[in-house]
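Hey, resending since the last one bounced:
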Amino acid sequence: MDQLIYLYGLIPTSATAQKSFPSFQGFDGESEIYTIPINKVTAVVCNLDANGHSEETIKEKIDNDMEWLQEKAFHHHKTLVALYKEYTVIPLKFCTIYKSEQSMYDKIQASEEKIEQTFESLEGNEEWNLKIYCDDEKLKQDVSKNNFEIEAKKKEISTLTPGRQFFEMKKIDELVEAELEKEKNRVCEELHEKLKEFSVKAEIKRNWSRDVTGLKENMAWNSVFLLPVDKVDSYLEEVKRLEKELGQTGWRFEASGPWPAYHFSSFS
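The structure tokens again:
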């Protein structure tokens, strides 16, 4: 029976000599996860039956079987989180599968120098995510009260006939919406720059829709930070302070971590 290799992540070979590798169940729910040392890099893998896990079969499952996708994606993430607690780990993307051990070996060996540099950059650092949410209606009230252009337009409209006022108020609504987006971007960019001072690296990610988050508030900002371990507490304290400062105008922060360095390590 042909075997595929499912690759979860990479860890330093030196770390595996210091502690025994934990026991994990593999992707198919039957096989065991094991390690393959490749010089100074060790691959964390499991075997998969080629017939049941071909590229076409996996794509079909991802596209059409949400229950399978959620279960397997959670398994992948849970395994990486468990590895992260024990080792410096470069996490691989969900469903990174090689046709043979040799093909994986060749790929890793060709990138070994870059992988070792990544291990060094991750050592002593943690990845943290910050999502910023905004109650648009609450912030809109604040923006309307404190925006000179909007206030001037309202005064101008108050002198018009009722019929004209109706149409001009629609323009005001559009202006408020535009100023609201400007204010949200301004605040979030300032917050990001302030919090970036605690980090080694920082990235801005795509916002999630309310359909994804299931929340009534809109996500206004989504960022990740690679933080030195000794700065994590100061970073979290600053997040709390900023949320307290801005909370009355509709802002809410959600800091989570530490996570495997999904965003600050790459191996494709």
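The beta strands are 3-12, 34-38, 41-49, 90-91, 97-98, 125-134, 201-204, 218-228, 251-259.

Sorry for the duplicate.
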